Amino acid sequence: MKKINIETAVGIFIILGLLSLGYLSVKLGDVSLFGTKQYTVKARFANVSGLKKGAAVEIAGVRVGKVADIRLEDYEADVELLIDPDVKLQEDAIASIRTQGIIGDKYIKIKTGGADEYIGDNGEILETESAIELEELISKYIFEKE
What we know:
The protein is α/β, with parallel strands linked by helices. The protein has two domains: 31 residues; 94 residues. It contains two helices and eight strands; from the N terminus they run αββββββββα. The chain has an eight-stranded mixed beta sheet with strand order 7-1-4-3-2-6-5-8, with no helix packed on it. The longest helix is centred in the first third of the chain and has 27 residues.
């Protein structure tokens, strides 16, 4: 009788441990099991050097979404953003690629506009600023000194 109780307790403990491990894996992996409530917005950039899937999308320093996909279309980078449903982007918003810190990860910063119209699901941000390449700036400063 005692052996059955100990085995049952150990079994429950192992099951709870596996469930906890699964939960942590899903949370830390930023995986959405049941779909997402976020809406999709696209933006085209001439250069997205260093930007990766899953990068943050921020407005005023607050994370409001993430980069869902990056594709090459007509020699420009077509970036798909997932934006939180409670955030509304104006049609004249500007998306720019920035770096966190001096050599940090790239993220997309959105500057809000003043238009009355909002971008809907599968809409597009028309005004964009590409990533600034540090190597280009340094080489321009060094080699174009006159």
